[in-house]
């Protein structure tokens, strides 16, 4: 549902539409003295690119102003991509979690569709698991993934932002997990404070995050281009 009083147009959408307009105008200006076939081919290519940019812009505009659609779409995307077995990312993820020897009461911030569950398959030491996840569309995916992996521990789904998980009893969890979640929170400090407060003395806090590439690298440039787009598609990932 779109809230008319909350309607926003992110700057990345304005840039996409402005680029489409600039391409259309520039094509006419640059080819005005060319023969008709060059003009026609150039016009066709420019039209296709401009329509693609406008289409992306309109798609992002709808997502940016419809929280329910954005949350549902992101949950479906993560379920398709993150629940697959194999791959370099899963190898790193499971190596970290297996080395940590997850056991006892486990609290995870931003579990998504249960991405880390594949790494718990050989662990029978988890007594209780709580997932703090504001996107409620992930709950059903988590339950399905838990059943698929044959995991038997009790699962409690807390539909809250990490910043708002303040009612948890202090020093009550043996393990706190945060993987690829701090990039999408409003206050990293608040989430980490809640995580630290929930952890028992001597407990384990496991953090795994993606980072920006080094300054001046091509990957850094690519991240800066797609970052604003993924911020909309990725439910706030910055």
Describe the 3D structure.
Strands 3-2-1-4-5 form a 5-stranded parallel sheet, sandwiched between helices. The chain contains 7 helices and 5 strands. Helix 5 links the parallel strand 2 (126-132) and strand 3. The chain has 238 residues and is α/β, with parallel strands linked by helices. Helix 1 runs antiparallel to helix 2 (36-64). The mean pLDDT is 86.
Please, what is the average pLDDT? 86
- Specify the biggest β-sheet: 5 strands, parallel
What is the strand arrangement across the widest sheet? Answer: 3-2-1-4-5
Q: Please report the total strand number as a whole number.
A: 5
Annotation keywords:
elongated, 5-stranded parallel beta sheet, alpha/beta, about 240 residues, 5 strands
